[in-house]
Amino acid sequence: MAERKKIIIDTDPGIDDAMAIFLALKSPEVEVIGLTTIFGNVYTTLATRNALHLLEIAERTDIPVAKGSHVTITKGTKLRIADFVHGNDGLGNQNFPPPKRQPIELSAADFLIRQANLYPGKVTVVALGPLTNIALAIQSDPSFVKNIGQIVLLGGAFVVNGNVNPAAEANIFGDPEAADIVFTSGADVLAVGINVTHQVVLTDADREKLAESNGKFAQYLNKILDVYFSYHHDAYSTKGVYLHDPTALLAAVKPSLITCTEGAVRVQTTGITRGLTLFYNKKKSFEEVTEWSDKPSVKVAVTVDAPTVVKLVMERLMHS
């Protein structure tokens, strides 16, 4: 049996984060060695509470939770919170009782650095929210980009419109400066953007199958999915929901599910296109030295095997 991949999920739970976390715990290919929390779908304090709660539901209180940054990398406090997508509590307005556990003493960035040092080249970070914690780890420890195995991030829109505004996708928009630090760090980065995740839809019929199954996780998710389905119905006129976070998680677990292109990515940090992710394929070399020159390449997902992603999500959640 191949060695299980060690993953840390950097998360802002979030309904599809809950799905991705449960999916990871039911994926025999990986070992979840920690959750780190960040603002995005909810504020960091609530994200931390939700992460602890989800591990309690999963009976995996052995997995540590490290609380992340409350502000952006530039110390910005005006945060964009997507509670209108996930409910005021981030988990479908169910108002679950508070978890019994507390987060560990280490900050998210310090926990990321410590795990990367402990298992050099072996840890994959799956980043499902704004990239502040990862950027802080890169800034705090110059060896982090060499020690971390891979950073698989959900973020960017690349060739399609954003989901916050026409230019920007939510996670990148949440902290564009942090995203630019991560993309230009030289780490092994794979970006899974909404150009790919919008191809992966959990339909109303799929949800009914989840509801009918005896799976513990399936039953829990069915309870919290109402708000998420309503939002998608109103915003996109779809009979289903996009599986953003589970798709990014499975891209880390089973890389064969996606195909990628490689090149440099920069993030616009000002003006009406703040949060825009721009990809440079390096097929042309430019005379002038610019902010693009000598920037390392990253991988950007371009296609996804959507039927297999949905099938794996369904199977693993129903058998839980």
Descriptive overview:
With 320 residues, the chain is of the alpha/beta class. It has one domain (5-318): Ribonucleoside hydrolase-like (Inosine-uridine Nucleoside N-ribohydrolase, Chain A). Helix content is 38%, strand content 18%. The protein is built from 13 helices and eleven strands. The strands form two sheets. The protein has a nine-stranded mixed beta sheet with strand order 3-2-1-4-5-6-11-9-10, sandwiched between helices. Helix 4 (108-118) crosses helix 5 (132-140). The radius of gyration is 18 Å and the shape is globular. The mean pLDDT is 95. It comes from Olea europaea subsp. europaea. Residues 7-309 form the Inosine/uridine-preferring nucleoside hydrolase domain. It catalyses: inosine + H2O = hypoxanthine + D-ribose; uridine + H2O = D-ribose + uracil; xanthosine + H2O = D-ribose + xanthine. InterPro entries: Inosine/uridine_hydrolase_dom, IUNH, Ribo_hydro-like. Its main location: cytoplasm.
For this entry, give a set of tags:
hydrolase, protein heterodimerization activity, 320 residues, two-stranded antiparallel ribbon, 38% helix, globular, Inosine/uridine_hydrolase_dom, cytoplasm, 18% strand, alpha/beta
Largest sheet: 9 strands, mixed
CATH superfamily (homologous) name: Ribonucleoside hydrolase-like
Q: What is the terminal separation in angstroms?
A: 22 Å
Enter the CATH topology name: Inosine-uridine Nucleoside N-ribohydrolase, Chain A
Q: DSSP helix count? A: 13
Relative helix content: 25-40%
The overall pLDDT average reads 95
| Major β-sheet strand ordering | 3-2-1-4-5-6-11-9-10
Poorly predicted runs of 5 or more residues: none
CATH class: Alpha Beta
* Coarse morphology: globular
